[in-house]
Specification:
This protein is α/β, with parallel strands linked by helices. It contains twelve helices and four strands; from the N terminus they run ααααααββααααββαα. α4 packs across α5. The structure holds fe (ii) ion.
């Protein structure tokens, strides 16, 4: 048997390796298991698109909040009890209109304003999306189900370590007058990334 085959057979499944590393760190007093549980809780329960949906709904019903949100996203979302990590120094909110569709990406890796719009979906991290949405955004959006008319201008925004974005989708006409909590239910993660309209 070639040596690399033996090496593969000797390697435990990833779950066992993770457990072994956590146990080794725990044994040295570093509380890795508690840290991993805390991160899992944050990722699944706290850093969710529902946060951004609340922000969008408030912006739709409250023009003064909308103006504050567009002027300084970080300060405005704090009014709803939402925070960003310290290194997300700026939250820039990009307002869609009938004539403009904003789209966000991270050409280098996978950065998002994850505490607000949720952790990035797998496709957002793919080289395919990261490279092509910049060069042929209209085609990529069409492939993802958003077929924009040629008159709609597409603006692509590349996230950096300290500047995070969220798209403020246009409010569907038929929802004008709805209560804020009902509006929040129709706002999707993809609409805040800008690959979908509502
Ligand atoms: Fe990134």
């Amino acid at each position: 048997m070639p040596s690399h085959d033996r090496a593969i057979q000797r390697t435990a499944p990833v779950e066992q390796r993770v457990e072994a590393i956590q146990a080794a760190l725990d044994a040295r007093g570093m509380n890795a298991t508690a840290g991993a549980d805390e991160l899992a809780h944050l990722a699944q329960e706290e850093w969710i698109p529902k946060n951004g949906a609340r922000v969008v709904a408030r912006a739709w019903v409250d023009p003064a909040f909308r103006a504050r949100l567009l002027a300084n996203g970080r300060e405005a979302v704090a009014e709803l009890g939402l925070t960003l990590p310290k290194h997300h120094r700026h939250l820039v909110v990009l307002e869609n209109t009938a004539a403009v569709q904003n789209v966000i990406c991270c050409t280098l890796c996978s950065c998002t304003a994850f505490t607000i719009i949720g952790l990035p979906p797998d496709w957002y991290k793919d080289l395919e999306y990261r490279s092509r949405v910049v060069r042929e955004s209209r085609t990529v959006l069409k492939e993802m189900g958003l077929d924009l008319s040629p008159e709609v201008e597409i603006r692509v925004w590349d996230t950096t370590a300290d500047t995070r974005y969220m798209v403020l989708p246009t409010q569907p006409q038929e929802t004008i007058g709805w209560p804020e909590d009902k509006l929040a239910e129709i706002v999707t993660r993809d609409s805040m990334i800008g690959v979908a309209r509502l």
